[in-house]
Amino acid sequence: AEIDAQKCFDVALDLVKQAGKVVREAIKKKKNIETKSSAVDLVTESDKAVEKMLISGLSEAFPDHKFIGEESVSAGEKCILTDEPTWIIDPIDGTMNFVHSFPYTCISVGLWVKKEALVGVVYNPVLEQMFTAIKGQGSFLNGEKLSVSGEKELGQALVFSEIGTSLDPEKVNTVLTNITNLMPKVHGLRGVGSAALGISSVAAGWGDVFYHFGLCAWDMAAGTLILTEAGGYVCDTEGWCPDERPMGWG
Ligand code: IPD
To answer: Which residues are Mg(2+) 2-binding (predicted)?
Structure first.
């Protein structure tokens, strides 16, 4: 069946706003924390509750759509992207920030169809920043149209990155070496602690570049559409764009 992007967007937006209320309340309270791949890769009961809420609402509206959710995958579900409409969900991106009540945390929901992003919503409910995009219709922050900075000089660029959650010494060393090498070449380096918000920040023109090694599908499924719809460019470390890569991203 033909996908109604607007309907998908409307349903997702409504659910994300409801989920935002949960996050906004929970961030003020004591969190119930568990660890995942490392001692700094965290999940809270709010991550799980929000993911459940989003998946149950979306599957009620779109019974034949598929899902990739960060916490469902952590709990053992397969992470497979097919051509079928697939909602890719990070219930709380920036869980470490959320745990510390640092208000740079968001809900990220992307709908991909035929391995292309169709709808993207990234919502920071604490700071009330709603980033949205539908393919071909531009991207918006609280309804205001976004466009990237257009900066072309690395030396003038504010670059966002993330430290990541691996404590493997070799990976930590790579992250720190990249920072050491980049520092003298850029105008400034920042990490906000949420990949989705880092990418959305570039879409908003609040900085110029975002890079991250080891990003997961749910960290970028919505953000990349928000960024490309704002005139930005997304590629992997070999320079391939998602829809041009010979092997695809599936
Ligand atoms: C994490 C954040 C962080 C990034 C990690 C992600 P989570 O997502 O996006 O910025 O560096 O790689 O895992 O676990 O808070 O949803």
So the answer is: 92, 219
